[in-house]
């Protein structure tokens, strides 16, 4: 915790511009108020980068944009689909306002949100190492992105609270085999879909959702997938694992 704070403070101190990289599928949950407060206090410009936009509907993105633009300029990026990285480069140059001088850009955020990928996207080259396994970037690294922009890539070391297993599941920080309560995490994913894109969930699992609670929806999905135990009971755990895996693989889309 102490080293995390020191790293974040040090990056903020050195950088001219800070990026907070969040997962576009759930920007509110992957924003970090401590990081935002420290950047605000430093008086340095912050850009919120909503990465993995390819996994979210246009409507969802518009909703997030109107919310986030009250906090800081928000830029939508999909490194996978090579979308938004040029806009981000321009935004960095605009907010840094350093005309012709070198710009140091700190990239902060939770593990696996795509901090290193975003840096590569803006650089146009795979200079920062990335991985689907979270916790990949180990120490702070400098990456030259050309045109006077230099990035500081950081490990996603924002500490998780005791109740953040849901966020860890959603971010893919822990896969379904490492989650203590996969059913709880799957129910949270179901709740989020019911609030924001019920049809997406219905179509993906071929179920019709009325006013059922999330545990009942989990059972419906288990039944539809034919996940049954020996005595014919629905195997909720197997259904939960399936939902978490589909979400983490990016095939169940918000
Ligand atoms: N679908 C999709 N996946 C992406 C995108 N950007 C990154 N990813 C994937 O997300 C995973 C994590 O990417 P990284 O760039 O290593 O993330 P990071 O935030 O640097 O991770 P740590 O260094 O572990 O904190 C990789 O499997 C990437 O391929 C994107 O725009 N869309
Ligand atoms: Mg990284």
Describe the overall structure.
By secondary structure, this protein is α/β, with parallel strands linked by helices. It has two domains: 2-153, Rossmann fold; 165-248, Conserved Hypothetical Protein Ylqf, Chain: A, domain 2 (Orthogonal Bundle), CATH 1.10.1580. Helices cover 44% and strands 12% of the residues. The chain has helices spanning 2-14, 27-30, 33-42, 58-68, 85-96, 115-123, 165-171, 182-196, 198-205, 214-224, 236-248; strands at 17-23, 46-51, 74-76, 103-108, 141-144, 149-153. Strands 3-2-1-4-6-5 form a six-stranded mixed sheet, sandwiched between helices. Helix 1 packs parallel to helix 3, helix 8 crosses helix 9 and helix 10 packs across helix 11. The longest helix has 15 residues, at 182-196. It is elongated. The mean pLDDT is 91.
Fold topology:
Elements: H1 2-14, E1 17-23, H2 27-30, H3 33-42, E2 46-51, H4 58-68, E3 74-76, H5 85-96, E4 103-108, H6 115-123, E5 141-144, E6 149-153, H7 165-171, H8 182-196, H9 198-205, H10 214-224, H11 236-248
Parallel strand pairs: 1-2, 1-4, 2-3, 4-6
Antiparallel strand pairs: 5-6
Helix pairs in contact: 1-3, 7-8, 8-9, 8-10, 8-11, 10-11
The structure holds guanosine-5'-triphosphate and magnesium ion.
Strand order of the largest sheet: 3-2-1-4-6-5
Shape: elongated
The ordered string of helix (H) and strand (E) elements is: HEHHEHEHEHEEHHHHH
The CATH homologous superfamily of the largest domain: P-loop containing nucleotide triphosphate hydrolases
Bound molecules: guanosine-5'-triphosphate, magnesium ion
Helix content: 40-55%
Count of alpha and pi helical runs: 11
How many domains, in number, for the residues? Answer: 2
Mean pLDDT rating: 91
| End-to-end C-alpha gap | 32 Å
Number of strands: 6
CATH class of the largest domain: Alpha Beta
Class by helix and strand content?
Answer: alpha/beta
Name given to the CATH architecture of the largest domain: 3-Layer(aba) Sandwich
> The biggest beta sheet, please?
6 strands, mixed
- Strand content is 5-15%
CATH topology (fold) name of the largest domain: Rossmann fold
